[in-house]
User: What shape does this take?
Amino acid sequence: MESGCAAAGPHRTTSARARMRVAACTAIALAAGMLLAAPAAHADDAPAPRPTVERPGSDDTALPSLELPRPEVNRGAFSSLDEGAPLAAPRSDVDGDGWSDLIFQALDGRVIVSTGAETHEMNFSDGYGSGSQVFKDVFSVAGLRPDGPVHFTLSASGRLAAHVNDPYYPSVYWSGTGWQIYNKVFSPGDLTGDGVGDVLARNFAGELFLYRATPGGAEPLASRVKVGSGWGQYDQLAGVNDVNNDGIADLFARNTAGELFFYSGTGEPSRPFKDRVKVGSGWNVYNTLFSIDDIDEDGNAELYARAHNGDLYRYTSTGTGAFLPRLKEDTGWNAASQFANAANMSSWGKDELWGLDTWGTLYWYYDRNNGQFAARQKVSDDGGWKGAKISVVSSLDDDNYADLLQVYDGHLYNYALNDGSGPWHIGSGWGVYNTLVGPGDLSGDGKGDLLARNSAGELFLYRGNGSGTGFAAKQRIGSGWGQFNVLVGAGDISGDGRADLIARAKDGKLYLYQGTGVASAPFAAKKLIGSGWGQYTKLAAPGDMNGDGRADLVARTSDGVLYRYDANGKGGFLPKAKIGTGWNTYSGLY
Assistant: This one.
């Protein structure tokens, strides 16, 4: 993996820190080394006939603030080694009072810290992404530096950056690439008994690796050491610092059946955990688990669990890996898209639904992380998109918003970007395709890709350049795809963290094509996951609707009823849930 800092890449100016990609008037440089990276449109190019689309902002302006229990004593910055006690150092003590603080990402991508006394934004910048960059994940490590915890941010393309602690403007001091090979990276706390937090990373094969922290070193993390396999059985890994008062980090793991297991830390780098102990069942009522370490000064960390409706519960440890009865702590936490050091795999690339009504007007809905959409917002002039051939694909750059693409007169335009005169012109020759789908990263490089099917039923992969401005040369990945009347996808459905594809055959059978992360063969063999799907007039992929990190599906009947199908983490869907009626006002859902 590359380490150290590099020159800044392509940059875009956006309207605000809210990371709304408002098709700014700044031209975007093409990423180096990509083939068929399209130039900006010239006078002799066929102009796109539509005005630039501006996506409105989230109306969830009020951020939640958790009133954390705070004993009156200010513990201050400390090390468990210095004090000679097994008290684990807090992983995310932003304000230096000796207590871990809650860090989370809002629905618009901003990183927020709640210290108990106040809630405000932490303005991270690593100098690599555009001004609209949204991190795929955030976690904190204690003991690496004397000035407070080190905050790590992970980009979708696999850049891990380490930031010096600051309540408002954490600055990067190291970064390395190649971390997209993992589907989960986090810090459970100190696993080796040296008083410094460590990092665990799980790859797509379910292997677990330990990265020991290296205080004072040129790089914050030592080379990885494999510490186990078979960890792919879990859909959530919750590092909780220490729950049995021995100063060593512990871990809880949940499977898709809702069973929760406790892994007690050993302090041994080669074998960091003891054999698992089952804690209980029924934990799949929660879409994410996380910990803010010890908040009541008993030496044992608490576990937090968020229900699908946004209610937040606290589980106080008994000191044995078990918990006291849960306590409902707060509501409205569906406004957090991802908690720092959360147990779930974070979703990426799309959290929204677009609708084109029968009059040709575009509307936008964003996912509220609780299985529902926010109220629709109009994003075009009345009738401005009548008859347009559009696709809405998972984010092609680093801002986590879907990209609106249009094919006009054989030319492909990206309305999420602006070349100074209008939507970004990607290239010509796209009129040969009857379907464009952008499920996310299919090649394993962390960058959003595009699938294109022609009238002969051939399917081609276009690897994205990471900025949404162009693609590598097309790769033919198969034939016979004309048997399907719907191809759709936006993220991970199978539960392994890779982008997948859903295909509906003309007889109404539904198939899953699980992503492999290999460009030459991006999908495993198709898997039948249902029948009777011909009853629906529209299928669309809005991304993760219920906040569990997995991609979901919506389906509309001819009478306008819209249903949500939540991914079950095993390559299928849970029973449908009715979202609403009146959706037959739309001729297209994307």
